[in-house]
Amino acid sequence: MDPLLEVKDLEIVLELKERSVYAVNSVSFDVRQGETIGLVGESGSGKSMTCRSILNLLPGTKSKTVKGSVQFEGRDLLTLPKQEWQQVRGKQIGMILQDPTSSLDPVYRVGDQIVDTLRTHQKMSKKEAWERAIKLLQQVGIPSPEKRVSQYPHELSGGMRQRVMIALAISCNPKLLLADEPTTALDVTVQDQVLRLLKQLQRELGMGILLVTHNLGIVAEMCDRVVVLYAGKVMEIASVEQLFAAPKNMYTKGLIRSVPQLDSTGRLEGIPGSLPRMNQPLAGCPFRERCSLATEECADAEKTRLQEVSPGHWSACVHHERMCGF
């Protein structure tokens, strides 16, 4: 099966007032129809930047450089003319942003915001779009949708606002859904409801999902494959089963060890150190200053390229074969 989305050698450099930021470095991965891919890493690893670049929604800095390709059904989105974006953004690719409070317009009813999206992308009368908005709210599990459709965002709970965001994202039956930390600021119960809803909608619509998160519990529950990012570089790509059973990158192993376990009695392990400065291109493994296995080889850009270490399992670690005892 051909990939629905194929990101290849993506590089993003932001030119800020006093420095350049090399935010994303040669990132490559793909998403297939009906598949959920997790984009994982700590804050500052380039997850959201990678996700937003797919829809040309990078922050409005004075200058930015984007290289590589983002192929969606055979079209390179990085070279897509401005006038063609309306046929892609919101229609073929939907997106759920981190914070529904700031993503929804506070001065418009939620129904009006859904209607506006529907009428922009589909030939519908206002009445038809309003009826469709009610059905969408019902589809995402909002009780009394006929009442909620006429309410303003501030009248809804955080969980309901996130469901409205999901309704907006799927309103045009997209082939691909980008979910950027979709459970941020939600309590655990509501978080579980939202994740179950996304899985249900994926089965109904057959869409691919790119899920951005730092929560490995969500990854284990939701994803088929995982892309691990660190300092803007792909460190590992594997199925969920491969990743948790036998990680092949020391950064991935550190992430897994730092997750609290119910049966753990010892001190919670963390990853010492912090992200490297990203004001210049990083040669070699960006994690080597924090890694207990680091050697001179780790500074070699060629030796730390992403390579397939077993069927379907890719790692950028020189010492992936030595990791069994660590």
From TrEMBL:
GO biological process: one example: peptide transport
Q: Gene3D superfamilies from the xrefs? A: P-loop containing nucleotide triphosphate hydrolases (3.40.50.300)
Q: Where is the ABC transporter domain positioned along the sequence?
A: 5-256
Pfam families cross-referenced by the UniProt entry: ABC_tran, oligo_HPY
CC per GO annotation: plasma membrane
Alphabetic keyword roster: ATP-binding, Cell membrane, Membrane, Nucleotide-binding, Transport
Membrane topology label: Peripheral membrane protein
Q: Which GO terms describe its molecular function?
A: ATP binding; ATP hydrolysis activity
* Localization annotation: Cell membrane
Q: Which InterPro entries match?
A: AAA+_ATPase, ABC_Ni/Peptide_Import, ABC_transporter-like_ATP-bd, ABC_transporter-like_CS, Oligopep_ABC_C, P-loop_NTPase
- Coiled-coil blocks: none
The family this protein is said to belong to: Belongs to the ABC transporter superfamily.
In its UniProt entry, what is this protein called? Peptide ABC transporter substrate-binding protein
Q: Which organism is it from?
A: Brevibacillus panacihumi W25
